Amino acid sequence: MKLTAAVLSLAAKLLSGATVRWFECQPDSCQRIYFANHTSHLDALILWASLPRLVREVTRPVAAKDYWIKGPLRRYIAQTFNALLIDRDEIKVHNSPIDLMLKEMGSKYSLIVFPEGTRNTGEEMQEFKSGLYHLSRKRPDLELMPVYIDNLNRVLPRGEFLPVPLLSSITIGPPIWLEPKENKHDFLNRARAAVRRLKDI
Fold first, then answer.
1. Which pTM does this prediction carry?
2. What region does 64 belong to: left with phi over 0, alpha with psi -120 to 50, or beta?
3. How many structural domains comprise the chain?
4. How many CA atoms lie within 13 A of 39 on its CB side?
5. Residue 191 maps to which CATH number?
6. Which of 13, 65, 110, 174 could form a disulfide with 85 if both were Cys (CB 3.0 to 4.6 A apart)?
């Protein structure tokens, strides 16, 4: 599986032409939440593939189950990059995605999440949903790493199955944390602004 993951990672990087910039931060295998804008089904795979190998091995992308279980190829890819698949149709109080993420993280894994929830086809990011806030409340020790992904929506346009090789870029910024007594609205706006500001760096 490790060999397959390495091959998949290389293929993803070659396909997307993604360049990665670490702005005021460095790669680290400590537990983190990477939170990014969301424009393409390839976002999770390309971001995961762009991490250094030792970081990649302890990082799990959170992805939509309904997309990644369609067909044997998608299922195999999801298994290879150790995706944590969330069933968006079965979200209930007793079946909380937040609790599932925390359980799967344990004391080892980092996660890649997309707080917009669904892919965004516009230029402006959508409002962030509350998941990142609740993760932060329950695990305030985690570093929250903002990520801006540029151009991946053109590599795999909405409604298309075959990717189009293009240059894209990924910028990872310095960590933030939930501040003491910070409310959900203020935190989510601050997190969204942390991603947005990376666009112009």
1. 0.85
2. beta
3. 1
4. 22
5. 3.40.1130.10
6. 65
